[in-house]
Each structure stands twice: as C-alpha cells, then as structure tokens.
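Following up on my earlier thread - several people asked me to post the actual chain instead of describing it. Fair enough. Here it is, all 174 residues.
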Amino acid sequence: MKSNYDILGNHIRLVDIRNKELVTERLLGINIDKYFMPSVANIIGTDLSKYKLISKGIFACNPMHVGRDDRLPVALYEEESPAIVSPAYLMFEIIDKDVLNEDFLMLWFRRAEFDRACWLRTDGSVRGGITWDDICRIELSVPDYEEQRRIVNSYKAISDRIALKRQINDNLVA
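Reply from S.P.:
Thanks for posting it. Predicted structure:
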C-alpha cells in the first residue's frame, strides 16, 4: 500500500507582503480555535506599514505560543478585502493548489494530531515557540485532489447540519 504522507514544507511557501502603502488599518489576530478575530492590541501611534498584509487564500500563524496553549494558532484568510496581521506572524500559501486544497489543509490544521506534532517541536522558551523549519517538517496526509474535495464537502455538509440543528434548538428554547 502506497503511503500518501508527505512533509508540509513540500506544499507551502512563506509569503511576506508588508502594508507599505497603508492599504488597511484592520488588524487581525488568530484565536486558539484557529479563526481570525479583531486584534485587541493597542495600535495608537504604531507604524502599520511594517505589519503584514494578508489577502484571500493566504494562511497566517502565530508561532510563539504553541507550548503555552498546546496549539498552533493558524487560520486561512477567506475574505475579499485585505487585512493586516502582526509582523511576528508567519504567512504562507500553498505552492500548487491543484495538488493540495486549501480547505483540506485547514481541516488538517484543526486536527489535534497536528497540534500535538507542533507541540513536540516547540523550543525551550517560556511560551514554547515553533520555527518555520519545524512546521515544514510536519507530515500530513495528501490524498488525491478529488478525495480532498470529497472530504471537505462532507465536512461542510455535516457542519451546516449541526448549525441548522442548533438554530432549530435555539428557536425551540425561545
């Protein structure tokens, strides 16, 4: 049986686009549930041109708190309008989107197995950071593209049903 595992570094590359032209002041962070959220940082008087500009289809992660939180905060940016993230974040993209589906990769990032692999590679700092090289050495399953799409579609269908059931339950309670 042929293994479909490969290292993540064969499928992603760093992206570093700065907000030099002050395209936006909308600053986002990433929560431990792996979603973007408005940042709580005080940016009054901060030079936002040094912040990283993120656009649709780009991933960002905060490599500095893995040991503390037991998770790598990573998220896929899906909005049409750009935003900015901390200059300390790593931003990356998929090299070949015909080989690896971005939604499939995000599902992989949400797995506890991925977070354990990150935690095992953290450094000895108080917060337990992880390097780009260590992230790239993590293995992931890369089935054929059609299988990835089937997995993503099944996950979305189940998620949509759960959301609908919650809405029905909320209506019944009300």
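The longest helix spans residues 145-173. That should answer part of your original question.
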